[in-house]
Amino acid sequence: MPHVTFVNRFLLHAPAEEFERVFAATSEFMAAQPGFLWHMLLRPLESDQDGRYVNVAAWRDAQAFRAAVAHPGFGPHAAALRELATSEPALYETRQTRTAVTEPA
Fold first, then answer.
1. What contacts 89, CB < 8 A, 6 or more positions away?
2. What residues contact residue 34 under an 8 Å CB cut-off, 6+ apart?
3. Across the strands, what pairs with 52?
4. Residue 23 in contact with residue 12, Cβ under 8 Å?
5. HSE toward the beta carbon, residue 14, CA cutoff 13 A
6. Burial bucket for residue 72 (CB in 10 Å: 0-12, 13-18, 19+)
7. DSSP alpha helices (H): ranges in 1-105?
């Protein structure tokens, strides 16, 4: 079964540096949870998008993700992030993928 992807959009109401510091601690916690594969925290290049971030994370399966967010240790991380930003989280299943076609050398 292919992995699932968690996408969470954030809109900050606190300094970006503080959000990134708190997010790094959350990332460290999640990386230690069973089923975690990887994540990327993204920020738009356009200056009119300041205060917006997107987290994209891959998990082995939905059950592993749900167990991680139900873990008692996750609560303080979620609360700290809610103090700094609003978010729109969603869990996705893979429907299609494509990789770049490269020309032979």
1. 6, 7, 8
2. 60, 64, 67, 68
3. 11
4. no
5. 15
6. exposed
7. 16-31, 62-70, 74-84
Cα–Cα distances in angstroms (integers) from residue 43 to residues 31, 40, 99, in the given order: 20, 10, 23
Return the pLDDT at 49: 79
Residue in this structure with the two tokens 């076609």, named with its chain if needed: 101
Question: Three-state SS for 38?
Answer: strand
What tokens were used for 67?
A: 């167990």
Phi, psi for 40 (deg, rounded to 5): -135, 135
* Predicted confidence (pLDDT) per residue in 36-70, tens digit: 999 999 999 987 778 999 999 999 999 999 999 99
- Total count of residues recorded for the chain: 105
CB atoms within 10 A of CB 68: 20
What is the model's pTM?
0.88
Q: Which amino acid is at 27?
A: S
Q: Helix, strand, or coil here: 103?
A: coil
Q: Higher pLDDT residue, 105 or 18?
A: 18
